[in-house]
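Q: what sequence does this backbone want?
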């Protein structure tokens, strides 16, 4: 948990307000739903299957317990979770020891896309979160297939300055979901 962030935060969209707050275990099903609501995520296996709930729960617990990470949700006036994102603070050596704020897994409910929620969240990230966390650089990656998302980020002032690479490490079928590392387990 990045405890320096001033949360909850009330954000204005074009038509309404949402509250951005830290995710809790009670938000797990809504977050899984947002991941599976996205065709690219669903294609990678985020399908909200009951068999996967334990893995998502372990992941949520690990994120919440990590002082460099924050999982956030945006909630509408009716109390429904309509968006989520993860923030990670990365201390670094490059750029004269600059801290970076990494934005990951930004998802807005398909029913709410183009409502201004994503813009309001990303404005909060760059205008408030990055400042509060002392991060002069906000970075994110976006799947090459997310052409609409690329236009969105460019419109917000992000620059497509790098090419990213990933390597999928083969997993054994009987591998357990990742648990805490030895360091995390012993504190």
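A:
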């Amino acid at each position: 948990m990045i405890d320096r962030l001033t949360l909850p935060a009330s954000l204005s969209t074009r038509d309404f307000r949402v509250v951005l707050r830290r995710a809790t275990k009670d938000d797990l099903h809504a977050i899984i739903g947002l991941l599976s609501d996205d065709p690219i995520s669903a294609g990678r296996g985020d399908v909200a299957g009951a068999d996967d709930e334990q893995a998502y729960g372990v992941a949520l617990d690990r994120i919440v317990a990590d002082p460099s990470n924050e999982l956030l949700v945006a909630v509408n006036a009716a109390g429904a979770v309509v968006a989520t994102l993860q923030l990670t603070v990365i201390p670094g050596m490059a750029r004269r020891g600059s801290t970076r704020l990494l934005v990951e897994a930004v998802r807005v409910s398909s029913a709410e896309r183009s409502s201004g929620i994503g813009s309001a969240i990303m404005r909060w990230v760059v205008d408030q979160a990055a400042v509060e966390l002392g991060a002069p650089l906000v970075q994110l990656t976006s799947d090459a297939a997310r052409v609409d998302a690329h236009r969105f980020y460019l419109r917000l002032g992000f620059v497509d300055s790098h090419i990213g690479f990933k390597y999928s490490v083969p997993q054994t079928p009987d591998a357990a979901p990742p648990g805490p590392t030895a360091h995390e387990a012993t504190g």
